[in-house]
Amino acid sequence: MNAPLRVLIVEDDAVDRMACRRAFAAAPDAPFELLEADSGEQGLALARSQRPDCILLDYHLPDLTGLEFLAHLNGDGAALAIPVMMLTGADSAAVAAEAMRRGARDYLVKDVDGYYLEFLPGAIHRMLREQSLLDDKRQAEARFRTLIEQMQAISYIAELGEEGALRYISPQIGLLGFSPAEWLADPALHGQRMDPDRREAILEAMRRSRRDASPLHLEYRLHARDGRTLWFRDQAELVRDEQDQPLFMQGIMIDITQTKLAEQALLASQQALRSLSAHQEQIKEHERKRIAQEIHDELGGLLTGIKAYVAVSIERAAAAGSPAEPLLAEVAGLAQDAIDTVRRVITDLRPSVLDQLGVWAALEWYAEQVERRSGLHCQCAVAPAAAALELDAGRSTMLFRIAQEALTNVVRHAGARSATLQVDYADGVLELRISDDGQGIEAERLLNRESWGILGMHERCRHFDGELKITGKPGEGTTLLLRLPLDERRE
User: Fold this and answer.
1) Does 449 score more than 60 pLDDT?
2) Are 253 and 234 in contact (CB under 8 A)?
3) Is 324 left (phi over 0), alpha (psi -120 to 50) or beta?
4) Within a domain: residue 266?
5) How far is CA 231 from its chain centroid?
6) Total tally of structural domains belonging to the chain
7) How far apart are the first and last CA of the chain?
8) Domain final residue, candidates 349, 377, 395
9) 355 pLDDT exceeds 60?
């Protein structure tokens, strides 16, 4: 059996109190336990001491009006949660409205025929059910606020529409040196704290999200009141009701300052390493050029001299009519082999054609060398627009070395019969494309961080803000595409 509902009747008319008692006694739904007071002060005393489930309050009392009673009741924290139903006259709609504004949960009109008594128990039940729902809602909101306010992030609720005014923001806005009341009172404050150069773009993205009820994902900086600069990730999603109707945007602003600082430090470190790598490559190319020159001038000269002396000795012997020493002919052959080896080493170190005739001639020459040495049919095609470009030494070396590495990989790993090297230029972008008809590169090799040849090509390309992609499928060959943005460098 349900516990009886404790109702405090504050009514100075004894007949009306008796009528109320009879109405509650006749109610079939649940038992009622009634407390009665014939004055406002007595009613307040009973409310404080007995804490009834609800109060049935007459507006006209000998010592207090119903509105004064509500004022005293709401001023007492212990009795604040007691729901009140106001009894008013048939011509007191304004009084009822004011009573509801002052804290009454409901009202009932006392008609002269007493019909209101029939509805009194049901009205009390309805009011208490509504009060229970209200209490549950408040508790849920309190738990939600507690959860939100314990998070290490700024939570907010924004209205839908072009303006998208904030309805709520959590106390964590104090991270920027502002209270929630300050932030909500000045809608322009959010934009004022952004970087001026990105402000309009960020605000437009927010307006678009709230206007279209679309998800928001932004990262931007805000300047705190004390001058600190903080990075935030701002994310918001649409909240819908049970009928799938849009209600508002609920968002969260996460402080990612430390992550951004670490990211910037990492980027700076990567850039420094790439600059160092590029500097080392430049030193390496200079050293190759110097060694090739020294080999050409010193060792090449010595071998040429040796061969010349041997040739002179053989000629003198022939002129004297005596047979030449057989070993001298062998020495001459060995000297020629050594000269050929020196030339090949010099070419591998630094092809002279690259410095003398430029990168386009060097690419055509190297394609011919690959075909002659390996038997791979290698075709090189440089578009006229590209051939008209005069590249600086750094970019020329980069293009040649990447083509050299790519064709070397084709010869060693692709099992291809032919390869094509194409160079095009359009819209300020130079494209180098090397494709083969071999077995195709596997994805594992592309993702292998220990494939130093591929990594080296990527790093060379990145140093000049280029983009390099390698694609391939088993049995369908491999394609390398290098896209290099250029200023106009036409002759």
Assistant:
1) no
2) yes
3) beta
4) no
5) 12
6) 4
7) 101
8) 349
9) yes
